[in-house]
């Protein structure tokens, strides 16, 4: 099968999203499929992924001009399927969806997210973004031949269910075969230190909750990567750091923290890439949501799920969990059934094949019906 992967996302640095895309492509190629990547509206001198890039001149051309070079390249490749992460409508994407069997991957409740961003920071930019997203998401999802969501909660969202196309839930995965610096007991600090990494201005990450936990457990130390803030007492803000820069901080820590305030965008379930990386490195985790990997399963001992929606914080529960897991290193075979990309990507490709075959059958039936009407 020939798969065209369309990216409308910055490819200049290897963040969690790009790591995920590269892992997906690697697994698909291992399964014998031919994959080509097309980076729309991109002109990076040092791209972190092997992709054909298509620059744009201005905001108007980005939305309304047709990228003829991309259309020619796709025509030459003639993919069986075009796969892309959800992105706003633009003329080029609309044309691609009209011609090729396509599947959109939905990673978040974009309506709730843009609304949450606006409520958090009420400015014109966030307001326009929120309104345009509600309008421009419709033609993108209408033209999708199928939808893949990363959580069951998203699959059951009425804003997605109303589109009468096949929907499959496939959570984010992680390549357990790559060489990662893993938790080592000998490198842990004599103090109890915890680690969080995220992106700025994401209110659902729950930095305020980490601050609250730190106040209630002053004997623990908290390192926050990706956010600029004032270091104080037992909370250390490190700002944005590359992996080679934050790894020496991580290796001192015994437990990692995931998203804690997902409820702020009216969601309860998620499967963040950063949490999968924590697990792949052997770290126990504290999360504030239901992770799709453990959905309807008993939580492993190395996962603490805390419910902070009603502002109730049980610091004793956190203290017990951290102390019980301080010297625990999670083995790869323990997390493999939950997050392994080699396991999960087989499911995705099988869904691709089903969608392609369904569209082939539909076109044959349509042709038969047209022929019957003419005869």
Count of structural domains = 2
- The end-to-end distance, rounded to whole angstroms, is 35 Å
The largest sheet is:
7 strands, parallel
What ranges have pLDDT less than 50 throughout 5 or more consecutive residues?
none
Trace the largest sheet across and list its strands. 3-2-1-4-5-6-7
Name the CATH homologous superfamily of the largest domain.
Answer: Glycogen Phosphorylase B
CATH level 1 name of the largest domain: Alpha Beta
How are helices and strands ordered from N to C? EHEEHHEHEHHEHHEEHEEHEEHEEEHHH
Helix share of residues?
Answer: 40-55%
How much strand? Answer: 15-25%
Per DSSP E runs of 2 or more residues, the count of β-strands stands at 15
Structural class: alpha/beta
CATH structural architecture of the largest domain: 3-Layer(aba) Sandwich
Number of helices: 14
Name the average pLDDT.
Answer: 92
CATH topology of the largest domain: Rossmann fold
List the helices and strands and how they pair.
Blueprint (H helix, E strand, L loop, with lengths): L1 E6 L8 H15 L3 E7 L11 E3 L4 H6 L3 H10 L3 E5 L5 H9 L2 E5 L3 H11 L3 H19 L3 E4 L2 H4 L2 H4 L5 E3 L22 E6 L9 H10 L3 E6 L9 E5 L3 H8 L4 E3 L11 E2 L2 H8 L4 E3 L2 E2 L11 E3 L9 H11 L6 H8 L1 H34 L1
Helix pairs in contact: 1-14, 5-6
